[in-house]
Structure formats: C-alpha cells, structure tokens
Amino acid sequence: xxxxxxxxxxxxxxxxxxxxxxxxxxxxxxxxxxxxxxxxxxxxxxxxxxxxxxxxxxxxxxxxxxxxxxxxxxxxxxxxxxxxxxxxxxxxxxxxxxxxxxxxxxxxxxxxxxxxxxxxxxxxxxxxxxxxxxxxxxxxxxxxxxxxxxxxxxxxxxxxxxxxxxxxxxxxxxxxxxxxxxxxxxxxxxxxxxxxxxxxxxxxxxxxxxxxxxxxxxxxxxxxxxxxxxxxxxxxxxxxxxxxxxxxxxxxxxxxxxxxxxxxxxxxxxxxxxxxxxxxxxxxxxxxxxxxxxxxxxxxxxxxxxxxxxxxxxxx
Length: 316
Ligand code: PMV
Hints:
Blueprint: E1 2-7, E2 10-14, E3 19-21, E4 26-27, E5 31-35, E6 41-48, E7 55-58, E8 61-62, H1 67-77, E9 83-90, H2 100-115, H3 122-132, E10 144-150, E11 153-160, E12 168-173, H4 183-193, H5 197-216, H6 220-239, H7 250-264, E13 269-272, E14 279-283, H8 288-296, E15 303-307, E16 314-315
Helix pairs in contact: 1-2, 1-3, 2-3, 5-6, 7-8
Bound molecules: (3R)-3-hydroxy-3-methyl-5-(phosphonooxy)pentanoic acid.
The site of (3R)-3-hydroxy-3-methyl-5-(phosphonooxy)pentanoic acid has 14 residues, from helix 4.
C-alpha cells in the first residue's frame, strides 16, 4: 500500500489557457509541451487504516489544505478507502510559474495507481492528473507531448522522444514567490472578460498543426516562431482580462529582449513564459552556454536553471 514516483514538470510551447468544463477540468484548447529532465518532484504515498485523515507534506512542511490531493485520491480509489500520507519533495521553486503542479499530480496519480494496484491505463491516469491540474496530463509522457481535446476527455500522444531531438531549456528565475493569481482563477477571469478569448480558442488548432509539423521535421526556426507567437497570444488574453493579469516583471521583459538579440546574432533560441514571471529559453545545445551567460547577468535574474528533455515518470 505504498509507492514512490519521480516526475518532471513540462513546459508548454503551445499553451493551454481556459477550460471547457469546470467539473472535469477539461481544457478549452489542445496544447503541446516538452517534459523536462533535471528538475523534478518526488512523491511518496502510503495508505494505512491507522490514519485518521489524509496528511500532506511538501518539502517537509505539513499542509493544512489537502483538498486537491484528497479529491485526486478519491477519484482513483473511490471514497471508501484508507487515508493516506503523501509526502512530496521538489528540487525547484513551487507555485511560481514553473509548472510544479504538472510534476506533482503526474507523480501522484501514478503513485496512487501503483500503491493500491488499480491497474489504470496511461490515458485514464492522464485524465485523472488533468482533473487536478490541466498541464499535469502532459507530464505523463516524456519528450514532446501533444494533449488533444476529445469528447468529454483528453488524450496524450508523444510526438518525439527526448533523445530524438535533445533540446535544452534555460530557465531564468526572476521572482520565486507564489504567484498572486492562480492559473485556475486567471483562466476563469480571462474566459469571462477578455475580448480576445474567443479568437484565442478558435485559432489554437492552426498553432497546434504548425508546431506539430515543426517538431516532427525538427525545424527549430519554425518551432521558435510559432511558440513565441502562441505565448504572446496567451499573455495578450491575460493582459486584456478585467482586471488585467500581468505575470511579467521588468526582468522578464529584459530577458525577452536579450533573447531577441541572441536570435539576431544567429543563436538558436526562443522564449516562452507561463503563469509567472520566469523566462524559459528553449535552445539547441550549441547555443546553451551563450544563453546562460547572457540571462544570468540581467538585473533581477536571481538564478538560472538548466535542463534537458526527460522521460515519463519513474516508479522508484
Ligand atoms: O495546469 P495549470 O492549471 O497550472 O495551468 C497551466 C497554464 C499554463 O502553464 C500557463 C500553460 C500551460 O499550458 O502549461
């Protein structure tokens, strides 16, 4: 009745922002991501008849609110179950736009399935992970992952393995505090108030097709162009929500300009930004050291993380 699983977060190149179903947490749009390698969450779960309630610790700190984790366990095991102790450790900042919920919930659903021997298939577990955090479903696979919207559910497909196209990711941390507006709250606000929301949803399939082609043909410049465009569109929807949601700070913008300068000098790099102020620079290995050296010198960048592309979650 116990299991330990390590999973890595993923970074969306074609983003998800908005839900078509609140109850099952189904996304309004399909998305494409890359699963990381060196940064991870390791989750241990242990069910026992002796526990009087679910217990959750994150980085050794006991949490008062176990609701999202308890709901996820109920959804897989049913409500007539033993309580569980879940302890989760992350080697990167959480709730700061580094997709910590994607590694946390992909690790959790696999750990639950393993601990109670439920025998769920991968796609079912991806739907369970997605119920807790939309982006978590994509961390159930390694490399380049497409999350497709199907009727009443989602489906995940691996487009390329990490070894097929070993891109590098450099993450500039500009503020590691918890974000002021959670992704769920932000999505709700955007879908209700942004005048750009409907066209964002309507045009997503074109971006998905373009990015899929770029990935399958390993065309870096084509992937750069569509990824930056899709990222800016998502942030335009955020910015035009009422009240406006602005996750960037001045260092985020400085980093964007620095990456544009590197592109002009012929370096193979592009940026993407999620619901937080960190910049994720995706690059070819030959451009990585230049990207790191430039980003770490920018005022407001407190640290720089580097990662390759990784595998699906690993049972320990
Ligand atoms: O999975 P959530 O609910 O934390 O939402 C993630 C939203 C973005 O990171 C901004 C985009 C994405 O597709 O990952």
